[in-house]
Write a structure and sequence with these properties.
It is built from seven helices and five strands; from the N terminus they run βββααααβαααβ. It is α+β, with helices and mostly antiparallel strands. The protein has a three-stranded antiparallel beta sheet with strand order 1-2-3, with no helix packed on it. Residues 1-109, 288-312 are annotated as: Disordered.
Length: 312
Amino acid sequence: MSVEPGWYVDPAEPTTRRWWDGEGWIGAPVPVDVTPPEGPPPPEPAPEPARPTSPAAGPATGAVPTGPVGGHPSGPVPPYGAGQVHPPGAGHPQGPPPGWPYPTWPGRPPEPRPHGLPLAGYGARLIARLIDFGIVLLLNVVVNGWFIWRFALEIAPPFEEYWRRVNARDLSTEPLPAAGAQSGSLLVVILVIATALWFAYEVPSMAARGQTFGKRVMRIKAVSVEADQPLGFGRATRRWSTLGMPTLLWYCCGLGLLLQLVDVVSALFDHPLRQALHDKRAQTVVVRLPQPGGPTTPATPHDRADSPGDTP
């Protein structure tokens, strides 16, 4: 494939453009949103020659080594041989032609390890969230129970009349009786109390430890992307509010429940950090903690093809 010379987006750095001369990239890059000059870039200045030094001072910086090296015959040793990457500013820096995919990590790239800890799995996160929902539900039974009972009495008449007609095969077209006048107010009170209980249960523990009871059971933890330190009240509130505040919108034909489902499922489609929408807003990531009695610092993953050896 032959590509005409011109200014193209650099596959290695999509925010810049470089001049492709038909064989390789030359010249300095320019920002992609800046109009490039007409024609090729001006030639780069030649590097300054090495200063001569006295024999006692040793070889000058940048001088080409000569003589036998590692058993090879004497003579100049080229600084960049066949297959080696050209240095910055060389005539033809390595890289694919414009329009070609840039070489990526061979095979599947290793998963990130924020602060040296592996990412928590989706299953562990789901189980931890279900445990927390169960606890919040029990709190609502205790605190919200009376309001829920009153709300059930208010909305009972239309449901009872509907089932009476179904069982009696009554084909009457008369409208069903309306719900009680207080049903709307009771629903608002129930949702406000439920939201407050969820906030009181989750935010303080997440702010201090990055864990709720469910996360402690599953040995996972939410940490800041920037540093492994307590989230703090502000960040924990932002993280919770994205998922918890839509509870108030359950009043609007279940819109809040739909938003919460989208938030929970979003982690399945985020790569590579598996962040749900509430994680992205608070800039947090959920990691898996080491097992009790195991090493306190996880082993370094073998992310490279060749392990570094001893320096001779």
